[in-house]
Amino acid sequence: MRHGQSLANIAGLIVSHPDNGLNQYGLSDTGCSQVEAGIQTSLLDATTRIISSDFKRARETAEIVYARLKSNNQICFETRLRERFFGELELGPDNRYEEIWTFDRQDPQHNQYSVESVNSVIQRASAVILECEAQFSAETCLLIAHGDILQILQTAFFGIAPGRHRELPHLVTAEVRVLVQQA
After folding, report:
1. Residue 38: inside a domain, yes or no?
2. 183 inside domain
3. Which of 11, 123, 126, 165 has the greatest number of C-beta atoms within 10 Å?
């Protein structure tokens, strides 16, 4: 699940550094409503394991989901699900994402503007999935994270190169998308 609309989304800002994202730029009122709606239309229930980025916008999303599902399990906050680090673009305009995604297509190892590479993101996010599979193989796990990390993570499920993440359907705010590992 991608977090609901955040105050950073409204302001058109890139917020990827923990100094800014952990305690600032939480959900907007619309974002809270989006999360409620997203959970209502999902097939998730109280047995779902919630594993979330610890950034404020994802944390608030997870707390809404937890309350709505009346979850049997505590939320697990996972630093490896944090937003992709956008380096020098931090707190700049979000229209710069497209520039980075162009570099991603050309080289998934790039770190133009000190941006975290696609390969680094897929490595840390995939590690979370592998641990969930090992620990909770018969359970449903809901990962709550950020647009870029989830776009990139999907490439592992679809068997395509991580640098092609923008070719996959875009995750909208508060969207729950079912991903099943391909054999």
Report:
1. yes
2. no
3. 165
